Amino acid sequence: MAHQHSSQAKRPASGGAQGVERGSEEVARLLAPRLAHFAGVARTEHVTRAAQEMGVPQSTLSRALVRLEQDLGVALFARRGRTVSLTPAGRTFLGAVERALADVERAAEQVRADADPAAGKVAFGFLHTMGAETVPALIHAFRADHPRVRFSLVQNYAEAMLERLRAGELDLCLTSPVPDAPDLVARRLDEQKLRLVVPADHRLAGRRRIRLAETAEEAFVTLEPGYGLRRITDDLCREAGFVPRVAFEGEETETLRGLVAAGLGVALLPPPAVPRPGVVELTVTAPRAVREIGVAWLAGHPDTPPVAAFKEFLLSRRGRLLA
How many CB atoms lie within 10 A of CB 279? Predict the structure, then answer.
């Protein structure tokens, strides 16, 4: 009798695929709060005992089970007073419910662990050129006071990191140029001088300083469009009065240095972590050749304690990030 009543309740309206899809979404939304109640009763096979264990009124639990069966249109329990036993449909449903609840519990444990002030996680992105010395030194200094904080590190070019920031995959990123966008918060931390890198046997190799306009006829090796350093290179050359003639576009500054050493062209690059043979690096006197380094995060996005601590640490390094 109970089964006949349940099978008639809350049936989705007949119609096309769109109506079926809406019905499925509605059922999932209705079922979610009742799954733990169902699992508790299935475990004890006793409504009163389950209500006591879960700390809910028995009447609330009984109503939740009835509504769950009505939403599904299937009897999950065979009832004998306050004692119940699972029907075949109930046993099938219980397996899926237990797996779903276990997944939720694992996810809850993970997010709690990531937010732990002492041992949580920071998802941090940074430019390739910051990876050899700057970022390792920053993390080493930060972990002196926060030894158990974990890092998920991503190296990429500026635009790709900002995309991951917006997607929620990164908490913070160290980037250049410093972005100016309404959905982001960015703070300038430091600036880095750029040098003109030329082959060791180049006509300019005997110089110590140079105006960028003197390189208007040179071939340049640069990073690909979309990289922050490429945009800075194009802007500086435009300010010097010319458009660079690009001989090669790459993804790594050290690859560009190697190509300069091979005589393929000249390049505007930040200082290397380790001096490279075969090239000479000149100071650019005009225009002022620097790139600003900043930290960015998503506006309005709440920080976990470890992210807040690392953000505060980075901001405290203003003017000495690259020291």
Answer: 24
Asked if 156 contacts 164 with a C-beta cutoff of 8 angstroms, the reply is: yes
Tokens 């009065």, residue?
241
Question: Which position has the token pair 């002030």?
Answer: 117
Q: What's the CA gap between 139 and 221, in Å, rounded? A: 32
Locate tokens 């020291």: which residue? 323
- Cα–Cα nearest to 270, from 291, 250, 284: 291
Contact 89, 75 (CB under 8 A): yes
Terminal Cα distance for the chain, rounded: 79
Number of C-beta neighbours around residue 144 at 10 A: 7
- Enumerate residues 6+ apart whose C-beta is below 8 A from 252: 128
Helix/strand/coil for 78: strand
Question: What span, in angstroms and rounded, lies between the C-alpha atoms of 104 and 73?
Answer: 25
| CA–CA separation, 47 and 65 (whole Å) | 10
- Whether the full predicted model's pTM is greater than 0.85, yes or no, is no
Which residue type, as a one-letter code, is found at position 137? A
Strands (E), the chain: 77-80, 83-86, 121-126, 150-155, 172-175, 184-193, 195-199, 209-211, 219-223, 245-250, 267-269, 279-286, 290-298
Mapping DSSP to helix (H, G, I), strand (E, B) and coil, where does residue 34 land? helix
pLDDT in tens, the chain (323 residues): 334 333 333 433 333 333 334 444 455 555 666 788 888 888 888 888 888 888 888 888 888 888 888 888 899 999 887 688 999 999 999 888 889 888 888 888 888 888 898 899 999 999 988 998 999 999 999 999 999 999 999 999 999 999 999 999 999 999 999 999 999 999 999 999 999 999 999 999 999 999 999 999 999 999 999 899 999 999 999 999 999 999 999 999 999 999 999 999 999 999 998 889 999 999 999 999 999 999 999 999 999 999 999 999 999 999 999 86
Residue labelled with tokens 């109970």: 2
